[in-house]
What we know:
The structure is a homodimer.
Chain A: E1 3-12, H1 16-26, H2 40-46, E2 49-59, E3 73-83, H3 84-87, H4 91-98, E4 110-117, H5 120-125, H6 132-139, E5 147-151, H7 160-172, E6 177-179, H8 192-210, E7 215-219, H9 224-237, E8 241-245, H10 246-249, H11 251-260, E9 264-268, H12 273-276, E10 281-283, H13 285-295, E11 299-301, H14 313-323, E12 338-341, H15 350-357, E13 363-365, H16 368-371, H17 377-393, H18 397-400, H19 406-413
Parallel strand pairs in A: 4-10, 5-6, 5-13, 6-7, 7-8, 8-9, 9-11, 11-12, 12-13
Antiparallel strand pairs in A: 1-3, 1-4, 2-3
Amino acid sequence: MTRIYATYDIETPVGLDRAASVLAGEQSTGTFVRLAAETDELRARSAAVIESITATGSASKPALPTRKTGATYDRGLVTVSWPLGNFGTSLPTLLSTLAGNLFELAELSAIRLVRMDLPADFARAHPGPQFGATGTRRFMGGHDGPLIGTIIKPSIGLTAQDTADLVRSLVAAGIDFIKDDELQANGPDCPFDARLEAVMRVINDHADKTGKTVLYAANITDEIDQMKRNLDKMQRLGASCAMVCVSSAGQAGVRSVRDHSAALIHGHRAGWGVYSRSPDVGISFEVMQKLWRLAGVDHLHVNGLANKFTEDDATVAEAARAVQTPVSDHGGPAHTSMPVYSSGQTIWQIDPARRVLGNDDFIFCAGGGIMSHPSGPAAGVESLRLAAEAAQQGIPIEAFATKGDPLSQAMAQFPRPNISL
Amino acid sequence: MTRIYATYDIETPVGLDRAASVLAGEQSTGTFVRLAAETDELRARSAAVIESITATGSASKPALPTRKTGATYDRGLVTVSWPLGNFGTSLPTLLSTLAGNLFELAELSAIRLVRMDLPADFARAHPGPQFGATGTRRFMGGHDGPLIGTIIKPSIGLTAQDTADLVRSLVAAGIDFIKDDELQANGPDCPFDARLEAVMRVINDHADKTGKTVLYAANITDEIDQMKRNLDKMQRLGASCAMVCVSSAGQAGVRSVRDHSAALIHGHRAGWGVYSRSPDVGISFEVMQKLWRLAGVDHLHVNGLANKFTEDDATVAEAARAVQTPVSDHGGPAHTSMPVYSSGQTIWQIDPARRVLGNDDFIFCAGGGIMSHPSGPAAGVESLRLAAEAAQQGIPIEAFATKGDPLSQAMAQFPRPNISL
Lengths: 421, 421
């Protein structure tokens, strides 16, 4: 396969055929005045091709404000393909092409990039995750089951020493994974270096005493050169997991970290809502997560089932599965990452989270689900581990729990959410 | 001023006061269960503060699909502030904070970041444009008036030699500025190195013969390390303008180019529609252009008056003015860039383009407006230069043109667009 395929959900006042032509033209050889240089040979080599058009509906009003108007606004799925010769395997130019000026076309009153089908050459050309799930477990000195994790809270405001003190109580509680909040990076009130030093003293002490290495995802997100300095600091202190806000640092920023890093890359998708919230403009997670994985994220946030945000459970499940699906349907390295569930997660979500994937290669982050356990954080972690064990054995937690154990206490404490899968 | 202010246009089913609290909490010290560590002292230091709430309307249906529902969906402008102590002057963390998880809040059925007010420290902490308009003119060996430019078309499909041949005819026509299309970066069919070599031979020959240096904005957009290699290649060949697609490379990518570059940075905003198209989710250009300027763009695309895309003239005018407005209202370097007008531009748009700004520090890119001139490209360039001269002297082109001159020919050739300023 030597072409890249993209599918768009569009709405248009000028008819689906015409709109698809404009889109394919704008993103390849077309200009609004046909030029002499646009020869048949050039078009055969470089023009985008409309592969299919499927009408899905029609409306009397445009979904988005648009300069062109029509009697009806036709909705449909349009698949367009480009030859690899136009931009090779460059991800930034793939973005400029598949997700560039087309969002502003006057002929479109809705435009979402919903699917992208990449040749195996893309999978081969990019480094992808350096460690993935297997490497993550290796960093921990071996670990079975999902990683039980949490996020430093409050998100922002703790000093470096406050953070280390909280980490001390979390590692004592038996946690596997701790991450900074996306708001906490390198501000004057909690500088990265001081925080990393204070936290790694606790993590390393705990490893020396117990043999267990807790992963600390330090939020290195910053300008490229600063991220490199942060990574160097991590290496000196034996820190093995770098959190990067993939939208804030950009996909090219993630790749730069990957090229420079001996650490796991924990991808946080703060800002994701800009792409996901509107049904009428944006880019699907199915598409974006391929770019982030090609760039090298080992872990990628997918929200949580029954989360406190807007995404429904079907969307979250699809996102989690996407991260474990090969990046190209046509061969090359699979470049799978570990999905990270978080947001309002308790013992009730572990079994469905596992069922979505059919395996334990995920990170499960809980906040209140650990800290608000009636018998304290250690019981909170234990209750989640018991729930994970129950899920692995295919036993409902109601049957798995024994009276008065941490799991049954958690079941009494946390209301059971509605989850629709 | 030691706080950063952001204004959001929101819609909510839970009441504006409650929605503003959730937003401010999510993006600073709040958690959905209040923690012991969230002390009054911590909140005083780090919490986001709701500065103002102004109701603007109400609807019976939500603008965007949302999990929470209400009897009415209240719309309003909410201004929130954060202390600099939380994240200092880091642009990526500013993005994670002002434009992060909040887009996904279930309490919001619309959320756009519309304004951002930065302290002078932000202007001081960032390099900003290295050259701006003055430096751009210096690279050209001095130049009066707006830069008359064009874009290589077809966008993609020309070989390196085809491109150089087209450039030869353009420089012969007297053009000031030529840019690659955003689709043309470093694909196998037109590799960056080969194209740059072929084009710079033409540009440098022309400079040797005529003393005039035409700027060629070479599209370097790629992964960070590749952009650096492209910049090195440019320096060896005496190329002085690097085009970067600011969304595809990311703001951190732009900054990385700025730190490594002895060249002008020509910022192209391919993909901008994702942020701009929906009135209910996204980020305004007023906000984003500040980030790109702080990161270092010397030129920034703003669309054109009477363009072929969706933005109306008021939006384009506001964008062009924004790029020339100091990045902070409170002092520090102004970091102004040159606005770049393009898309369906002819002699009719130069006067209004200049009136919007009140000066000639802009780049005016025309395609058909040059190539389709009845007396050829040289007359096309000359007609635009005459139109610019008329604008500078405050004379309507109808009065400035003389019978049969390139300007009057262009007026006869190109239909006069409706422009509403």
